[in-house]
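=== RUN LOG ===
request id: a7f3
mode: sequence -> structure
chains: 1
length: 91
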Amino acid sequence: MTRLEYLKKLSEEHAKFRETPQWLLFRKYMLASHNQTCDFCGKKYKRTQNLDVHHKFATNYENLDPDRFMLLCKTCHQFLHKKEGTPLLGK
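=== RESULT ===
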């Protein structure tokens, strides 16, 4: 399997998982526990659709330990993904 095929498969698996009740409940928890505030820039949002729950690690994405995630606004989330090779924050 090529890297591109692997990434496409991983993306499809992530999308399926993000439709599960476990993920939807976890997302609500992250929004509430982070006071709807981006962990990167510190901006607080009223609309939750402006925030993403970001995995700090590409592996074991079904492990819903809050320490493995960040709450990011769309701008900061895109920035982190575009900065390939930049170390992820946290553990």
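=== NOTES ===
The beta strands are 51-55, 69-73.
The helical segments are 3-17, 21-33, 74-82.
=== END ===
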